[in-house]
Write a structure and sequence with these properties.
603 residues, Rossmann fold, 12 strands, elongated
Length: 603
């Protein structure tokens, strides 16, 4: 277990690993402005909240004034108490305080409504942004960290908006109103705050300037913890099969310890603000009491005025103390907002050119001319690759691991853009076509299957609107999964949960193949799509697919070479280059690299 007693880092030193996270004051102001813009989308509720804040604090500020009048009505001599006047002031005080409490309650409800709407809008914007990001973003960012921004960071902002923002708004009005009333009662006593208020501000700024990096580190570490947890839960079977439980627990302890320490350090240092400001406020109260007594003895202030001034001084210093106490939460909200806005500021997938045309009635003629590509600058994966897939042909792509087979598929679908060369569909450059219409021209089945929470019928019909049940059944039969579905208690209405963990991996893959078969696409991509089914079933699927994909182009990435013997063209890729091409028989006669791969599977 992580130890809470670990010594925090030297106060004033930046936490390690956060240099790249540092945010300038200008960036901080920009974050605040963006949060304000989110809030101002709901202007009606904001105006209503401001109105209630003003009224609630106005009623609350009347209490000390009436209290002073009531004290002065008592008089300084025995029997001189004017009870009707005292009772009247006390009644008005009670009414004002009740009205202030009711308005504060309504204000809290409205602020909860505003924060709920802002959080909903922010999460919608995040998810919309994620759907517009290129595939490369998800290849370089942990899923758990992305989920942390959607859940934890937005919840942190929500909490701050619903509670801290109310306190800040109320505090500003209370401080201003109290200051005005104190000036009206005794400008001389107000001079005390010329010393204590600047001192409070200096201490607060000093501490918060050093805690801000700690809160950014806390958000970062929570994201890393979520990413680590999500990664290991997803691979739990592999973890257990390799008996890595103890090693993973030790690693989790390390990540958890770093997260807890980051959380502890942020809270530890931010908690210094409240007590420090509270001490200064108590000092100001002591000074007011002493100087007020002196003015009373000089006949320059009444007891009632002193009483009112003391109460107003408490109202003046109390909000300052409250702001100091919640400054840590505000820092945390700002750190969370920075993470959210960094995601929202990510470059989206490159937009289609204004002249891009839709791909109408594609024939499936695909051509690559001298295409080169690398995921990182200076590291080329594919080198001057050329191929031609006529309409209706079956193109098989084989080669050792890391040869660039899946990379080629990514380029065909425009998940990544090539570095040089040209890729054409039906004679048109894919960069002159609308990306949506290009991708709809393909059906794609990957080695990593994906099923969502829903029925088997909904999962198969996912990619086509208005599909009939008969079409779904026909596709399931072609994918050799219909008989299995029929044996289930609810058949096609069986509910799949948690990415289909209640069925086998091979059955999941057959469902994704059936999903691809119901599409009206003119081209099909199978990236190791049958790696989890037996050879007999794979051969049957290939035969069924050939019937269903007549006059359609099919790209197949396969390791089991026996299943692509009937391909019209086999491309042998090695180190990013097409080293051989031809039919199975032609390649076997060449006695080259393909024959070595083929014979190696049967030796």
């Amino acid at each position: 277990m992580p130890k809470m007693g670990n010594a925090p880092p030297s106060f004033g030193s930046a936490p390690q690993g956060t240099a790249h996270q540092r945010v300038t004051p200008g960036r901080k102001r920009a974050t605040l402005l963006r949060l304000c813009r989110y809030v101002m989308r709901f202007r009606f509720w904001v105006i209503l909240a401001l109105s209630l804040t003003v009224l609630s604090n106005y009623f609350g500020l009347m209490g000390p004034y009436l209290s002073g009048l009531a004290v002065d009505s008592i008089g300084s001599e025995a029997g001189a108490v004017r009870f009707p006047l005292v009772f009247r002031y006390c009644l008005f005080m009670a009414l004002f305080y009740v009205a202030s409490a009711l308005l504060s309650y309504l204000l809290s409800m409205i602020m909860i409504t505003i924060s709920r709407k802002v959080t909903y809008q922010m999460r919608s914007d995040i998810f919309s942004k994620l759907s517009s990001l290129p595939v490369g973003y998800f290849d370089t960012h942990q899923a758990g960290d992305i989920i942390s921004r959607i859940s934890y960071d937005t919840d942190t902002i929500n909490s701050s908006l619903s509670t801290d923002l109310v306190q800040v708004l109320a505090s500003i009005i209370t401080v201003g109103g109290s200051l005005g009333m104190m000036i009206a009662i005794s400008p001389r006593l107000v001079l005390v705050f010329l010393i204590t208020v600047p001192l409070s501000i200096c201490i607060t700024r000093f501490i918060t300037s050093r805690t801000r990096p700690l809160f950014r580190l806390r958000s970062l570490k929570i994201g890393q913890l979520n990413g680590f947890t999500e990664e290991n839960i997803t691979g739990l079977k592999t973890l257990q099969s390799y008996c890595q439980e103890e090693h993973t627990i030790r690693k989790l302890d390390q990540v958890n310890d770093e997260t807890v320490n980051a959380y502890y350090n942020a809270e530890y240092y931010s908690s210094r603000v409240g007590p420090s400001v509270n001490f200064i406020n108590n000092l100001s109260l002591a000074l007011i009491t002493v100087f007020g007594a002196i003015l009373f003895m000089q006949g320059k202030m009444s007891v009632g005025n002193i009483s009112s001034f003391v109460l107003y001084s408490r109202k003046f210093s109390g909000p300052i103390n409250e702001i100091a106490n919640i400054i840590g939460e505000l820092q945390s909200a700002l750190a969370a907002a920075e993470r959210v806005f960094r995601l929202l500021d990510e470059e989206p997938e490159k937009a289609d050119s204004p002249q891009a045309l839709p791909l109408h009635d594609p024939q499936g003629d695909v051509e690559l001319q001298d295409v080169s590509f690398g995921y990182e600058e200076g590291k080329t994966i594919l080198h001057h690759l050329s191929l031609h897939a006529p309409p209706g042909s079956m193109i098989a792509i084989v080669g050792p691991t890391g040869a660039g087979k899946t990379t080629l598929i990514n380029l065909l679908m425009r998940f990544y853009d090539k570095d040089s060369g040209e890729i054409k569909v039906d004679g048109h450059s894919i960069y002159d076509l609308q990306r949506k219409s290009l991708r709809l021209a393909y059906s794609m089945v990957l080695q990593d299957t994906w099923l969502f929470y829903g029925t088997i019928y909904e999962n198969i019909a996912y990619g086509k609107q208005g599909i009939t049940r008969e079409e779904v059944i026909e596709a399931a039969k072609a994918a050799k999964i219909h008989s299995y579905i029929q044996r289930l208690p609810q058949g096609y209405d069986t509910l799949l949960t948690d990415d289909g963990t209640n069925i086998s991996k091979g059955q999941k893959q057959l469902l994704t193949i059936a999903r691809a078969m119901v599409m009206d696409s003119h081209m099909l991509i199978l990236d190791e799509a049958t790696s989890n089914v037996d050879t007999r079933t794979e051969m049957q699927i290939q035969e069924a697919m050939r019937r269903l994909m007549e006059n359609k182009t099919c790209f197949v990435v396969a390791h089991r070479l026996s299943t692509i013997r009937g391909a019209d063209l086999i491309l042998v890729v090695r180190d990013g280059n097409v080293v051989e091409s031809g039919t199975h028989e032609e390649l076997m006669k060449k006695r080259g690299f393909y024959r070595e791969l083929y014979e190696a599977q049967f030796k």
